[in-house]
Amino acid sequence: MKNNLYIVVPCYNEEECLDETTKRLTKKLDNLIKGGIIDKKSRIVYIDDGSKDKTWEKIESFKSPVIGIKLSRNRGHQNALLAGLTYAKDHADVIISMDADLQDDIDAIDKMLEKYHKGYEIVYGVRSERKKDSAFKRNTALAFYKLMNKLGAEVVYNSADYRLMSKRAVEELSNFEEVNLFLRGLVPLIGLKSTTVEYPRAERFAGESKYPLKKMIKFAWDGITSFSIKPIRMILWLGVIIFIISLLITLYSLIMKLVGNTVSGWTFIICSIWILGGLQMISLGLVGEYIGKIYAESKKRPRFIIEKIVGE
């Protein structure tokens, strides 16, 4: 039985890449169809995440097998990806998500489909090496994955959003109602049979990265605070330790006063005030971050709004 494959590609200001991306993906679909691996109704789904350039005009100009989805405004990469997955699950048997910049190896799709036909419902694309990335990016990525796993999130090492999911897996993913999306942490929680496929990561075909340092830090922070309460527990234990230290200092001060060995202690007092004040502000800010996420989740606002669909 041939499977209907949809390739979901979120786009934000990707007009420079789309011609080549469409060319390569269309060729890949044609080869898979000719090989009898997928159904001829398989499609490429581009999701325009409120781009400011001519990305949507490009998408509209493409013919079959391209389907275009335009979101009403910019909702962020994860929400745009979810919009594409949500649409695709109603039409496809198997769905592959990837970025538009061609850094993900398109030929890895063949290996993913092989794993799918062996019974795996989720196949993660894992980077075998990151030589094209800077040393800073490689090391910070490594630190991020290690930190996420230590904090209790089941994140697949060196895997981004290049993955295959069966129709059933995407249907289960749609049951998660988080507004603060971090799909790299959510997908492993589905728990269906999964495996990995390794591929070398290439350089971006054209344009600039949509994840500068500021966005990378925000993305990592959202992932940590969405999947773990350990930072709050760490603050709790830090408070306990500081309280114990303060008791010891108080005891020491009383003993010094009783033996008549008193000093002004101005520097010590000032430093203590500033340090404790800083820790309190950090603690309040961290708690506020979690309260803010609870507030956002409680409003149940839609994660995306589709303005237009073309190519159906």
Task: Note down, in words, how this protein is organized.
The protein has 312 residues and is an alpha/beta fold. The protein contains 10 helices and 8 strands. It has 2 domains: 215 residues, Spore Coat Polysaccharide Biosynthesis Protein SpsA, Chain A, CATH 3.90.550; 70 residues. It has an 8-stranded mixed β-sheet, with helices on both faces. The longest helix is centred in the last third of the chain and has 34 residues.
List keywords for this structure.
elongated; 10 helices; Spore Coat Polysaccharide Biosynthesis Protein SpsA, Chain A; 312 residues; 2 domains; alpha/beta
Give a quick precis of the structure.
The chain is an alpha/beta fold and 312 residues long. The protein has helices at residues 15-34, 55-61, 77-88, 108-117, 135-150, 167-173, 183-190, 213-227, 230-258, 266-299, and strands spanning 5-11, 43-48, 66-71, 94-97, 122-129, 159-166, 194-200, 306-310. The chain has 10 helices and 8 strands.
Estimate the mean pLDDT confidence. Answer: 83
Lateral strand order in the biggest sheet:
7-5-6-4-1-2-3-8
**In the CATH hierarchy, what is the architecture of the largest domain at level 2?**
Alpha-Beta Complex
Low-confidence stretches: none
Number of domains: 2
Instruction: Kindly state the number of beta strands.
Output: 8
